[in-house]
Amino acid sequence: MVGTECAELKSSWEDDSDIGIIPRALSHLFDELRMLEMEFSMRISYLELYNEELCDLLSSDDSVKIRIFDDSTKKGSVIIQGLEEIPVHSKDDVYKLLEKGKERRKTATTLMNAQSSRSHTVFSILVHIRENGIDGEEMLKIGKLNLVDLAGSENVTKAGNEKGIRARETVNINQSLLTLGRVITALVERTPHIPYRESKLTRLLQESLGGRTKTSIIATISPGHKDIEETLSTLEYAHRAKNIQNKPEVNQKLTKKTVLKEYTEEIDKLKRDLIAARDKNGIYLAEDTYNEMTLKMDSQNRELNEKMLLLKALKDELQNKERIFTEVSLNLVEKTEELKRAEQNLNQTQGALQLTKRILNNTKRRYKEKKVLLQSHMKTEEVLTNQALEILDVADIATKDTHQLHSTIERRKDVDVKIQTACERFAERMHDNFELMDSSLSTLKEKQDSCTKMLLEEFGKIIPFKCTKNFKY
């Protein structure tokens, strides 16, 4: 309900995920009240129920004994005597008080929980809102929010609390929760008798269980299989509590005079009872009732003094308002003339407005026409864009083919140059060979002629002259 670490409560509840429902609710409540822009006051109290004993976690005096009495003016309500209500003005005040209360609350380490709550707590918020009615009379609206933190039921063996003070705490916690379960069952079944008085916890929650308030319950369970018994018990509580039918009532708005009158009558009644008790004349009261009434009277006296101070402040404010009203009355004539001139200007402005409306209608019509043309142009532009993209794709392909063709031509040119060079070299070699052959043939011919001549000479010597005469050379 409060959070894991009180030190972290000093930060903003919107930014801290570890704080509990109480600081979040108070922070949200402050924000909503400031948005109303009305005068308000807020008081808080922090009550602990430990081993069926009540303790004020915000009180500086531990000797004060807290008692519970039935409220005779409101059926089903209780009065807690000795519980201190501390005024708060900001979120920081609340966080400091929460830290103080958490430090004083009874917690202990068990086998099931490192910070097990050993008590039930009730954190109460009381809000007074002052607002002005239609006729200018001040109205007072009172609202109260109780945030209850119940200690969970425990298995003595699992929690390791078989002996000592922890065992007593566990017994008291389970006993109060058992009584709460019987009250819930009785309310659901609509039995004639509701056992509120069997436990102080159910007496504190009497107005929230079947009373005139709105009640919400948040069940905290464990997903572990070993805790299935506690989980089922908690879910059974929540399921039965959902079927309780409360009868919430809207807070009444009381005038300041009505509140002061009620307080005055109550104080006069208490004074008469007190005088009768002192003079031993009339009806005597029990000591608890007398203490309760005295405490209530002191509280009402304090509230009455606050109301008187507020009344004085309102009277001063009324005088200030009267002075302002006089000044406003003096300026009323000037404002009336200004109003007439403003009405004339308004008529002129209305005429200009009609003209402007006609111009606006024409402008809208031209705008629609331009919008249609623009849509047509956009469609045409889209088609042209698609065609241009297709042409660009074709141009890219043609460019790639051209580059490939140029590369092929360059390679062919290189091949032709190489072939021409080879042909020239071959022609040179052939020319050299032909010249060599020609030279060789000439040499060979000369040698052949020489040999032929030598042969003829030899034949001439051998063959007779006659034969040589007929031989032609």
Describe, in plain words, how this protein is organized in 3D.
Helix content is 60%, strand content 12%. The chain has 473 residues and is of the alpha+beta class. Among the domains are: 21-253, Kinesin; 254-279; 300-368. The strands form 3 sheets. Strands 1, 2, 5, 8, 9 and 10 form a 6-stranded antiparallel β-sheet that branches. β6 and β7 form a beta hairpin. The protein is elongated, with a radius of gyration of 57 Å.
Low-confidence stretches: 6-10
Rg computed from alpha carbons, rounded to a whole number of angstroms = 57 Å
As a percent range, the share of helical residues equals 55-70%
- The second-level CATH architecture of the domain at 21-253 is 3-Layer(aba) Sandwich
Q: Can you write the helix and strand succession as a string?
A: HEEEEEHEEEEHHHHEHHH
Number of helices: 9
Q: Find the structural class using helix and strand composition.
A: alpha+beta
Look at the structure and give the mean pLDDT.
80
N- and C-termini, Cα separation: 150 Å
* Total strand segments: 10
CATH topology of the domain at 21-253: Kinesin
Q: What's the overall geometry?
A: elongated
The CATH homologous superfamily of the domain at 21-253 corresponds to Kinesin motor domain
Family: Belongs to the TRAFAC class myosin-kinesin ATPase superfamily. Kinesin family. KIN-5/BimC subfamily.
Domain Kinesin motor: 1-244
Subcellular location: Cytoplasm, Cytoskeleton
Keywords: ATP-binding, Coiled coil, Cytoplasm, Cytoskeleton, Microtubule, Motor protein, Nucleotide-binding
